[in-house]
What we know:
Blueprint: E1 2-4, E2 16-20, E3 27-31, E4 46-48, E5 57-63, E6 71-77, E7 80-86, E8 92-96, E9 110-111, E10 116-117, E11 124-125, E12 131-133, E13 152-158, E14 161-166, H1 173-176, E15 192-200, H2 204-212, H3 217-220, E16 234-242, E17 245-251, H4 258-263, E18 267-274, E19 278-285, E20 288-301, E21 304-313, H5 319-348, H6 363-380, E22 392-397
Antiparallel strand pairs: 1-4, 2-3, 5-14, 6-7, 7-8, 8-13, 9-10, 10-11, 11-12, 13-14, 15-21, 16-17, 16-22, 17-18, 18-19, 19-20, 20-21
This protein binds FE2/S2 (inorganic) cluster and fe (ii) ion.
Fe (ii) ion (FE2) binds near residues 220 and 221.
Amino acid sequence: xxxxxxxxxxxxxxxxxxxxxxxxxxxxxxxxxLEPVVEPESTKISLSVGASYxxxxxxxxxxxxxxxxxxxVSKTILEEPLLIGRDENGVIFALRDVxxxxxxxxxxxxxxxxxxxxxxxxxxxxxEGTCTAIPSLLEDQEFNVCSIKTKNYICVEDQGCIWxxxxxxxxxxxxxxxYIPRAPGLKENNFSxxxxxxxxxxxxxxxxxxxxxxxxxxxxxKSWWWRSSRNMKRKEKKYVPSGNGWTMVRHHPSKHSHIFxxxxxxxxxxxxxxxxxxxxxxxTVGGKTLLSGITTLTAVDELTTELNHTTYWTIPWxxxxxxxIINYFVHTFLSQDLEIATAQAxxxxxxxxxxxxxxxxxxxxxWYFKLKQVWMEAHAQNRPFKNPIKESxxxxxx
Length: 398
Ligand code: FES
Ligand SMILES: [Fe+2]
């Protein structure tokens, strides 16, 4: 499916007027022209939605504590079968989960913390994916065993999570690690966390659109303790480019959710987006971190995306109280989103034409596709990435 990319270098005021909704009597502002933002022919950029993955890029793989020493797990990311392991010394590694001999997953075999033994003919591989032994060979049957390899991937552990790099294996780790999405406001290893994982039945492009979409909130997230769609408010937020994404600058949270009505004046929040599909929220009280959260989207295949939401806090004694509360809120919110995504899935699988770039609430969606395009072009042409987003004020009703 293709769509037209708006010019994202500036934001133009939308044509707004107060209207009375004929159905429910709620006063709200609506746009007169609900059309995709379309630029003159000469500046059109056509981009395929739901047909590619952002690369080179770090993708969230799994929480660190789910991978014990001497164990390996199987995961598919970007349609690649992966073996993710942790050796006897605690060091993680990631390999293509395919035996180069006759193609069985290596994770079907055994791992002793040093070598993986394939379950089919017993070939052994080290943590770098190099073959170390072919048991069927006799002493006089010469064979260059170490010339046989399965692909290995750069991977790191950061803030209690494992990330895998899909890109050039010879890349300088110091350079590329700057682009690992991070939760802000945490001191090294001085935090507690809770992670919720779920699978969304759509391509990552559509999952990103939902992740950064602000106008669905009053319609989808209608729990009694949160808010209702009858309580719409006009929002105006400042966005600045940052990293390979953007940041909605620090502000007091909206008071139309019941929780923030009570404590909204005390706290501030900053929300950022990073490629390939990460939403980062940093909540502070008096400038100090209260909660820091990161929602990551990892493409599994064309029709499946894994979402992991990690919430961090730095005050250890609140763990027994805050963990169940956070888990309840996150589970409730994500279940509401998943219900929508599941209803969309059979339709999105056919890649229909959609209106994705309504202004201003749809502008972050357009930014995402532009960032993805500029990022991939910069790497394909071996030149530095230059963030195409310009500082903007976006306005919408929510
Ligand atoms: S398929 Fe793995 S050793 Fe033969
Ligand atoms: Fe949502």
